[in-house]
Q: What sequence folds into this?
């Protein structure tokens, strides 16, 4: 019988779990609400229930599970298994997540930054297969990043590496909550796209179906802008172009530091396809260092919904080597 | 008898060599002009003569030398031992440096980016000792960078990692020769300091001893600006402040990607001390991510003149493990 692991992906909206064997086959899956705003216990219960669900539907027992890996928003301490102070998990200040889950299920639990396990998953089974120097980004409410350098996950000294959303690409840009100005996620996340669109709508010369949202910015979202762009609205297309081009500038910056061969982009905004990928590739072509970027490709993540649970499992599978 | 290695540091002006034992003791040193503008043969001869000099003055023979490491400007292929196309080495397009030197001295030769071996040297014997996640930068004509991640040199997929001089911190900034706009080295290198000073001198309201260089920008250099600042010239101090603050913004960006514990700054401009370190530290404090930077220090390199030769030797010492 193959060795079995569980990978969990804790997000602000959903928690997903997978029962996964050492070769990366997903034998059972579960998805349910994560409920992080309700209490400290609520998301913990959801995680435990989700783990129970894949064990049950996989027809196995907890004695068959070697280890559990959880990808969660950070900042966190992977070494301590503790969530430090994540914006999306308001009831979990210095919360010992790994110990709490271990207590409830009786299996060893390890945690890691969600974007890092996303990168591990895409590297293992998706867009990063075969690339020992690989970067992955998720474009959602914010921007997450994860790096594989020389065939190993880059974690940094306290598991906070690859925070590419807070790379400034405009030192005089608008203030970010992180302390920096002009951070990439202010422009190239779903939130950033909405922000720059609202800002541009102030100009009364704009012709667009989106002008109906002028002064009602709270009602605008990235899906609405996407639909307008898909219907040929030039203004909406231009907003995606700005968002994607700046994404490409961020990629050039990370490329010059990490010298990767391939970057995979996932998260909700990646569904916009060439509306965002074409300008990102144009930025790489126009602004990249020639000798570096000749072999670099920007591609879409291949495992939406599965990358993070696969990566969380991969993290605890690779511990075999250490133990 | 201890095992012996030679570390070579090829710069645009000088070539330095050191006869170094496995513990990092420098037993003999040589420094001479590198002559890269004259011909392809000239700098090669200087390297070989410099290597011969440390062998002779160390009282050993080539049979005693296990390997030679050379740090050189890139881009290069460490794997092939070839200089690809370095701005400072105009006669060396696709030049097989490692093979050429090996042919002349009969010892195995390996090459690596100069800023990478600088970082290795500071990590081994200088400001980075004991920090498994460490970054080093050299501020000269340009800006070089080198990273130790999890106790290993970060090289990337073709040895072009850590090109921090070409990280953009201003997407709408001035055009850099690399293709990008607003690159860090346009502001925070010695050349960058002179550039922003000349630019500021255009303003006729400037009061400074440096106004005599207005319209004679070619005669200005970083040493002159340093002397003015040291003599209390407020304008010159402000120029260093801008240069150092932007350096700090660049450090924040790299920190958010690599999550290092310490960064060491070397190169000529580091001699300006607090004129440049104080504003860099202020930028880290004002713009850094709180949870990340609490344990991060910005320090001066400790091994001027020796870091790169030590690092070049360390690179070939560590090959013992591989062979």
A:
């Amino acid at each position: 019988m193959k060795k079995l692991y569980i990978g969990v992906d804790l997000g602000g909206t959903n928690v997903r779990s997978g029962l996964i064997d050492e070769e990366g086959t997903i034998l059972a899956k579960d998805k349910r609400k994560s409920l992080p705003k309700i209490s400290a216990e609520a998301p913990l219960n959801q995680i435990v229930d989700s783990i129970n669900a894949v064990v049950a539907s996989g027809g196995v027992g907890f004695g068959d599970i070697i280890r559990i890996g959880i990808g969660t928003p950070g900042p966190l301490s992977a070494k301590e298994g503790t969530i430090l102070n994540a914006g999306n998990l308001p009831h979990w200040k210095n919360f010992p997540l790994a110990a709490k889950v271990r207590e409830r299920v009786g299996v060893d639990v390890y945690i890691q930054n969600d974007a890092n396990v996303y990168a591990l998953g895409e590297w293992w089974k998706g867009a990063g297969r075969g690339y020992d120097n690989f970067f992955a980004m998720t474009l959602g409410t914010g921007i997450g990043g994860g790096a594989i350098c020389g065939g190993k996950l880059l974690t940094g000294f306290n598991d906070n590496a690859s925070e590419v959303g807070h790379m400034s690409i405009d030192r005089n840009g608008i203030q970010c909550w992180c302390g920096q100005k002009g951070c990439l996620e202010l422009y190239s996340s779903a939130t950033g796209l909405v922000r720059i669109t609202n800002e541009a709508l102030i100009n009364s010369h704009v012709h667009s179906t989106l002008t109906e949202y002028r002064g009602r910015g709270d009602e605008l979202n990235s899906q609405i802008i996407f639909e307008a762009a898909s219907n040929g609205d030039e203004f909406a297309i231009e907003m995606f172009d700005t968002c994607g081009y700046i994404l490409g500038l961020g990629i050039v910056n990370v490329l010059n530091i990490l010298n990767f061969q391939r970057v995979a982009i996932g998260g909700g905004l990646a569904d916009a396809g060439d509306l965002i990928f074409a300008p990102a590739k144009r930025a790489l072509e126009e602004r990249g260092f020639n000798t570096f970027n000749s072999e670099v490709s920007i591609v879409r993540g291949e495992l939406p919904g599965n990358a993070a649970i696969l990566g969380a499992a991969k993290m605890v599978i690779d511990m075999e080597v250490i133990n």
